[in-house]
């Protein structure tokens, strides 16, 4: 079910008013835990790692690309990201007069799993959605039910007492409507351990927790009890890129953060598993389009 223009306009108007005083070109945490707003004025293309979240575009437009897939982050849609995704992001609509406004809710997989368990008790869900390979990211149109819940959450945000008492119930309602709008069945495949997403999630966790180590496909495959060839195929289906390319993107993204926090290039490279400063600088420039020394110091 798609959204009605009146509901969407009401939601956009409330978000614009709520974020009018927010700073430009940085993410700001709202009054709700795990809910952020980003306002940006610059168009352009850049590599980025998007952490698990529910993303709703309020104004402007982004296109996220990986491999041969494109994800439409535009007004009237929500994007659900299950796993940390290494993407090429293009901002195509943003300006000083009309900045891009993006709302992001940190993904609470435990909450979703709990709601799915309750739903299954009433009406067991089997083979939900399409038979296509599960993906770590998907985009769907916003429904009136999602918009109505978001509008009530925004109104409730002005009342700390209501937020404290009713906030969890409202988030449960939001996740319920997101689950119901999931035509691909990705949530069920992920959280009911059907399909391959849980295995890939374990491999990604290993990469993150051992960011300073050299990545081995054979070791990752062993961790998730798959053959190396099967692991490569499944990883690409879910994450839309080969595992070694994904690991490199995660390492370089983390290195950029270290540099912005004040480490020099050699230190940052070493902390993400590069023993050769020259190799690190080459791959960093190839990935970001500029050298580590050109990154500049910007505390995050």
Bin the strand percentage: 15-25%
Determine the structural class based on helices, strands and strand pairing: alpha+beta
**Alpha carbon gyration radius:** 20 Å
**Judging by the overall fold, what is the CATH architecture of the largest domain?**
Sandwich
List the secondary-structure elements in sequence, H or E: HEEEEEEEEEHEHHHHHHHHH
> How would a textbook summarize the main sheet?
6 strands, antiparallel
Instruction: Report the mean per-residue pLDDT as an integer.
Output: 87
Assembly level: single chain
What is the terminal-to-terminal distance?
39 Å
What spatial form do the alpha-carbon principal axes imply? globular
Order of strands in the sheet with the most strands? 1-2-9-4-7-10
- DSSP E strands, number: 10
- Helix count from the secondary structure assignment: 11
Q: How many structural units, i.e. domains? A: 2
CATH topology of the largest domain: Jelly Rolls
């Amino acid at each position: 079910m798609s959204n009605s223009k009146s509901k969407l306009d009401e939601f956009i108007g409330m978000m614009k008013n709520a974020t009018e005083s927010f700073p430009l070109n940085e993410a700001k945490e709202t009054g709700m835990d795990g809910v952020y707003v980003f306002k940006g004025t610059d168009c352009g293309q850049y590599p980025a790692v998007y952490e698990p979240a529910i993303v709703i575009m309020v104004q402007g437009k982004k296109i996220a690309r990986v491999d041969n897939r494109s994800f439409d982050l535009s007004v009237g849609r929500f994007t659900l990201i299950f796993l940390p995704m290494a993407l090429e992001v293009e901002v195509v609509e943003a300006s000083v007069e009309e900045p891009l406004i993006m709302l992001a809710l940190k993904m609470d997989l435990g909450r979703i799993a709990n709601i799915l368990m309750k739903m299954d008790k009433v009406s067991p869900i089997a083979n939900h959605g399409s038979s296509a390979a599960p993906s770590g990211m998907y985009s769907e149109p916003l429904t009136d039910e999602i918009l109505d819940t978001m509008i009530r959450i925004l109104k409730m945000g002005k009342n700390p007492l209501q937020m404290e008492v009713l906030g969890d119930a409202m988030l449960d309602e939001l996740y319920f409507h997101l689950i119901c709008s999931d035509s691909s069945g990705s949530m069920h495949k992920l959280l009911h351990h059907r399909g391959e997403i849980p295995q890939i999630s374990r491999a990604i966790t290993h990469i993150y927790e051992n960011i300073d180590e050299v990545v081995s496909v054979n070791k990752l495959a062993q961790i998730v009890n798959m053959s190396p060839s099967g692991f490569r195929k499944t990883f690409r289906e879910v994450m839309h890129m080969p595992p070694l390319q994904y690991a490199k993107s995660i390492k370089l993204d983390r290195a950029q953060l270290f540099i912005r926090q004040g480490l020099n290039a050699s230190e940052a490279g070493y902390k993400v598993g590069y023993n050769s400063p020259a190799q690190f600088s080459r791959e960093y420039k190839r990935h970001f389009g500029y050298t580590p020394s050109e990154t500049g110091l910007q505390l995050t």
